[in-house]
Amino acid sequence: MSQLKQTLSDTIKTSMKARELERVKVLRNVQSVVKQIEIDRQTELDDAQVLEVLQKQLKQRHESLSIFTENGRDDLASKEQFEIDIINEFMPKQMDDAELAALVNTEIKAQGATSMRDMGSVMGVLKNKTAGRADPALISKLVKDALQG
Prior knowledge:
globular; 0% strand; mainly alpha; 77% helix
């Protein structure tokens, strides 16, 4: 069992003992998504794959949060924010903008990338290096800006 899945399971047990029912509900939801993917793929997910699932869950909740906030549904927005906060506990520390920009520039120089045609190879390496620690859309924007400018 991957370390991340074990941590998730342990946190569910701890939350159940503390009678944190809303927290348990969110954690079980995430755990069930992971298990469903394992069943569909007929394989056990490793930490990197579980991290991808968590990122996807976060993205969905962020999208819902922005929709609820735009439409004045503060009750639903606060629920989504609560779920985001809980899932974020399992995510690695996020890279700051300066650190990310430095990594992008280093990788572009290392590969000798000069045009937008090189973006795919640069993004492929950066995606692996920043897994779970940076938003891929932000990385893409930084790479695009660096290669165009």
